[in-house]
Amino acid sequence: MHRRPPSRPARLLASALAVGALLTCAACSGASKGDGGGRRADSAADVAASPLAADSTLAADSTLASPRGGKSASPRAEKSAGVLTPAGAKAALITEADIEDNWTQVKDAASWGDKLLIGKVDVAALLTAKTNAADCQKLLDALYDDTLLGKPSGASALTGFEQSESRLLYQVAAYDRAELGASLNWLKTLPVKCDQFTATDSKGGHRTVQVIEDPVPSVGDARQGLQVTVTGTSGTQPVTLTLQLAVVRVGTDAITVTSGGLGGTETGTTKAAVQQGTANLKDVLAGRTPAAQPGNLD
Q1: Tell me: the pLDDT tens digits for 93-109?
Q2: What is the C-alpha separation between 264 and 243, in angstroms, rounded?
Q3: Most buried in the list 25, 159, 195, 204, measured by CB within 10 Å?
Q4: 156, 172 in Cβ contact below 8 A?
């Protein structure tokens, strides 16, 4: 038995009821969006009122990090890092509040260079294979020039801090992906290739250099830490320079922390710089403003 289609008046009544239901849902939805819009407006006002937003240098650059691609096809793509800009590199730097103790930020960090690091590797006295002399020489030169990861391919920034006879240099930069990977792999080989060697200064003085692996907090995509000790003389007095090196890769960008001095190293400070610095860089690459630290209360 076949059912007859409903009469035209019945169909018109059903359509009217459906339209009424849709209008009611749309009104509810509009009220919900209105609430969310208010919260977003408040959030935007908070960002606009932040000290970073008021910085004229950063305000000139509309974003801290620009997207690598114009498409957002999947959640995986949305999580990809942005391109580090000059303003972003500056925003990713750490401050005095990010590290422990009584460190003071300086303005001449770019000109730092410890003379104990200047020397020529004594190939004859090298304990490991003689072919490793080039790597050991490269390490000394890179420590003096602050080029452990080579030359940046994009934006970069650095800052430095002093405390008594100790220094901390913090760098953030964009690198070529292949070269960055090669640099990290090279650093991993140094505790074996350059475990101990002798360097000779311009006056014929000898310095003993030791390189060991040093742990780095588990942050970023890849990391490597070293401790380098240089024992020699300053004038007629024996001195020992101890440096902690920590490198963390985040995508194709990286942070480098070099800390220490004649008074030894500050492991807690190095760790804090690595952890906060990595968090800052991730925030910048995600288009967020790094959170300001409250500062030391001691």
Answers
A1: 999 999 978 899 999 88
A2: 7
A3: 159
A4: yes
Could you read off the pLDDT of 243-268 as tens digits, one per residue? 999 999 999 999 999 999 998 898 99
Express each pLDDT in 142-163 by its tens digit: 999 999 999 999 999 999 999 9
- The residue with tokens 């003085």 is 205
The per-residue DSSP string of 148-187 comes to TT-S-SS-EEEEEEEETTEEEEEEEEE--HHHHHHHHHHH
Query: What's the CA gap between 113 and 143, in Å, rounded?
Result: 8
Residue of 157, 135, 161, 158 whose CA lies nearest to 226 = 135
From the list 83, 291, 54, 268, the residue with the least C-alpha distance to 174 is: 83
Going by C-alpha positions, the residue among 173, 55, 165, 200 that lies closest to residue 110 is 173
- Alpha helices per DSSP H over the chain: 8-48, 51-54, 56-59, 75-78, 86-91, 133-145, 177-193, 267-285
The H or E element containing residue 239 is strand 237-250
pTM: 0.71
Compute CA 110 distance to the chain's CA centroid, rounded to the nearest angstrom: 18
Q: What does the pLDDT look like over 2-18, one tens digit per residue?
A: 444 444 444 433 444 34
In our burial notation (b when 16+ CB lie closer than 10 A, e otherwise), range 73-99 reads eeeeeeeebbbbbbbbbbbbbbbeebb
Output the pLDDT for position 177: 95
